[in-house]
Amino acid sequence: MAEQGIELKGSSFTLSVVHIADQDINIVKRLLAEKIAVAPAFFRAAPLVINIEKLPHTPDFYALADALRELDLVPVGITGAKDDATRAAARAAGLAVISSGKAAVAPAYTEPKDVPTELLNLPNTKVHRGPVRSGQQVYAPNGSLVVLGSVSNGAEVIADDSVHIYGQLRGRAVAGAKGNESARIYCQQLMAELVSVAGHYQISAGLQGEHWEQAITISLVDEQLTLDRL
């Protein structure tokens, strides 16, 4: 009987997509470095898809991929190619050519009714009304972030202080992005890809226990993430 050393199975993974609108690779690299500096653990060795639909010309994929690797990112493919020559150039540089899926129709937004008014009026608090969609990033510098809606797969919410999510957390949430160890994450339903407080993080596989799909708060205690039910 022949030895079965491999097995191919279908699966799905959430990948971050960077939308490039400048032909100058040095500018792209600088702008990405600024984003990464907000939450370096969030992006370390992260697989990345490059959307080039806004570029007027085919980029140098070799140089672009090298620039991303220098930032400790892992370019895995491109999307948004307009012609076969661009697709061929991407493949020659070792990048997969990925077709964009159809956008999902979002349900009508209804603002949560159980949000404490005093929370919305705190100083240095940014309030985002509505869902945070896949590929979208919302950042609250020097303060807390309140999201009046859910955070989709592939979406990112980041705050230098605490993050409050009045809805499902399916994407990634980072609190204490600049090292505030007293920051917390609050959400109505934990289904996250990643959570992080002051650089200490946990991915989905480690979160799927008794607190999965529950209303929880996440804090940092003795350099360990602690989950408690709300």
Structural key phrases:
alpha/beta; 6 helices; five-stranded mixed sheet; single chain; 230 residues; 20% helix; 31% strand; six-stranded mixed sheet
Could you characterize what this model shows?
Helix content is 20%, strand content 31%. With 230 residues, the protein is α/β, with parallel strands linked by helices.
Summarize the structure.
By secondary structure, this protein is of the alpha/beta class. The protein has helices at residues 25-38, 40-43, 61-70, 84-92, 117-120, 204-207; strands at 16-19, 47-51, 74-79, 96-97, 125-129, 137-140, 144-148, 156-159, 163-169, 172-175, 185-190, 194-197, 200-203, 216-221, 224-229. The protein has six helices and 15 strands.
